[in-house]
Structure formats: structure tokens, C-alpha cells
């Protein structure tokens, strides 16, 4: 009997692609190598890129000139994610579908094993795009790669006694992140996407993206560092 190929949805935080000191090409090189290794095994990936510092630089600059609207904040962020998505498509050029997903509700019959997506429209984050893709292609797990190793019960930057959480249900997680989305919100997984993920019964894995070995351990079904959120 033929073994069904594994399909992954990865929400790749923009802070990994473009941290404060510029595009992290060294991380992208390692990430690319791992993904290509998995593709050789027949695995498929939907990669959704965040905006990172690119987004913050544009929104901060605009805010210095005018009183920027919420809509414009969102659109600057969306186009920043799409620029980062083009960067990902470029480095995966030979293996990736040539078109970047900008509307996740449209069905795309991509034969390639790597498909890249960016932001969609105001009010929806790239985490939300990831949940839509998971729903559309019947994928039960979303991997969220960010700049944190775990979800904490409080912001560890402000609370020294913040405790890391290895496993939590959606009800408990949503108590931590709340229910409202704001452009530039710094949350492990955005509140609106969390609501949808809970309704769909998705499992979300949150882990530190630059720990490539840890991500490989997850793929290999070995012990890994990170937070598991599920019903």
C-alpha cells in the first residue's frame, strides 16, 4: 500500500526573514536546505511569510508623516508579507509553484511540492491565511515558526516569573491572546486565527524558527522544543 505523503502548512514569522538588522540570508539558506531535503522525500509544503521589520519600517515611516488609517496599516503589512513571499519563491525557484497565493480562498492545483503565500486582505493576518489553507487542503496541523521557543503565560520580556507552556488547549490559549486583531499585534498566534483554528480542530505547533535542528526533529517525529495548542 502506498504511504500518503505528508503535507505541512508553515507560517514563517517575518522576524525570522527580516529581523532588525536586515534580511537573514544565513537562516534562509539553512531553512531552504531542510525544506528541500524533505521535498526529496515526497513531502509538500505551504509556506506563508510574515512581514517582519519590513512591515514595521513602512508603517512607522508613514505614521511619522500622516495620521495613518487602520486600513493603510494593514495594506502596508500585507504588501510587506508579499515582498517576503517573493523572496521565498525566489530561493525555492526550481521547486516552487511560480504563482504566490494572495487569495487563499481560491483553489490552486499546484503540482509543485512547495507553494508560497503572503498576506490576503485587511483584518486578516498571515496566521489566518495559514488556517484557511489548512482548511482548504484538509491539513490538520499548522507549524508556526517565530522568534519564541514556547508560549508563555505572560510576556517574558516584562514578567521575570513568566512560565513556559509546553501544551495548552485553545480555550486556555485564547485567554492569553484575547479576541481582537490589530495590525502589528505581537502574539504567538493571532486571536482571529486562533478562533478559526479552534473551530476547525487544528493543532498548532509554535517553535523558535531559527532552531533548524529542532524543526527537523519535529518532522522526524522526535522530541522537540515548542508549544502544542489543540482542543
Describe the 3D structure:
This protein has helices at residues 14-17, 25-39, 52-65, 70-91, 126-136, 170-177, 191-200, 212-219; strands at residues 7-12, 44-49, 114-117, 141-146, 151-152, 164-165, 167-168, 203-208, 227-229. The chain is of the alpha/beta class. The chain has one domain (7-229): Carbamate kinase (3-Layer(aba) Sandwich), CATH 3.40.1160. A 7-stranded mixed sheet has the order 3-2-1-4-8-9-7, sandwiched between helices. It has a two-stranded antiparallel ribbon with strand order 5-6. The chain is globular. The model has no long low-confidence stretch (mean pLDDT 92).
Notable traits:
231 residues, alpha/beta, Carbamate kinase, 7-stranded mixed β-sheet, two-stranded antiparallel sheet, 8 helices, 9 strands, 16% strand
Task: Briefly say what this structure is.
With 231 residues, this protein is α/β, with parallel strands linked by helices. Helix content is 40%, strand content 16%. The chain has a single domain, classed as 3-Layer(aba) Sandwich (Carbamate kinase), CATH 3.40.1160.10.
SSE blueprint:
Layout: E1 7-12, H1 14-17, H2 25-39, E2 44-49, H3 52-65, H4 70-91, E3 114-117, H5 126-136, E4 141-146, E5 151-152, E6 164-165, E7 167-168, H6 170-177, H7 191-200, E8 203-208, H8 212-219, E9 227-229
Helical amount among residues, as a percent range? 25-40%
Distance between the termini: 31 Å
* Number of DSSP-assigned strands: 9
Looking at the structure, the CATH topology is: Carbamate kinase
Number of domains: 1
How large is the radius of gyration? 17 Å
CATH class: Alpha Beta
Please work out how many helical segments DSSP would assign.
8
- Report the portion of residues in β strands: 15-25%
What string, H for helix and E for strand, traces the elements in order? EHHEHHEHEEEEHHEHE
Q: At CATH's second level, what is the architecture? A: 3-Layer(aba) Sandwich
**Class by SSE composition:** alpha/beta
Morphology call = globular
